[in-house]
# Entry
Amino acid sequence: MQVFVDTQPLAGAVVAGNLLDAQVEGHVHRVDEAAQPLPQPLVVAFCNHYSEGGIPVKEEPVEPRSGCPVNAAVEVLGDRWSLLVLRDVIFGDRRYFRALLTGSAEGIASNILADRLVRLVDAGILTRGTAARGQRARYSLTEAGIQTLPIICALGDWGLDWRSGSDELRGRQRLIRDQGPAFIADLMDELRVRHLDAPPRPHDGPSPFERLDAARDTPAG
# Structure
């Protein structure tokens, strides 16, 4: 992330106290169109961008540290926040910047969220829909993003065994573990319906995500 001080209000940045939604195309738009001009001077943080003549420009991709597949995955997913953003897209069906920001149980900062969304889009994990002026862009999982679900579930299993947490949130993970790989595959199929416009598959009773919501709402007994 590049941080510098500017003396002019600048659309196209993540600024403390204002909710600005980073776009992959190298510029941003205001989520809150009624926002007032900011006082000067101000600190502007471009996420994964730098400035040339006042215009934000995307940085060139950094070469991987090695050709190891584990390293390749860690470079995309191994930071503190990326998997949590994906968790909220997958399980919370939060597809918009504001929903991801306000719904974060861990309290992600707006500049960190904007940066991680840019990184995940650049890595081919998410896509960002085109938004008309005044509208908010919707994020969608790619197939590569959907394939992160087993990784997230495996991390959740480890967390169940080796870390404490709230019963409300642990109930969902217990259901995933108890139901096994077939249930994870069903969840991935439903994600393809939601994010890739795949045709829905018929199923008896509640959908996999409805079952997860019910497990979260049921106290542990």
